[in-house]
Design a protein that fits this description.
InterPro entries: DNA-binding_VF530-like, SAP_dom_sf. The chain has 74 residues and is an all-alpha fold. It is built from four helices and no strands.
Length: 74
Amino acid sequence: MVGTQVNNPLHGVKLEKVVTDLVEHYGWEELAIRININCFKSDPSVKSSLKFLRKTPWARDKVEALFLETFSQL
């Protein structure tokens, strides 16, 4: 299993950092427009978003994809 994360650009990046960086960059309102999930629209917080994203793989995939799209070019 050595080297299984070699091509994973998110290896070592915690989900909390992903969400926090996206919120700082876009804000909750814009984030909810880009990714239409309730945890970003209704009383958003990092804690509630993390709880939802850890249980919902499809939503986590969308958040991680937006993170890569946003910050991999900086």
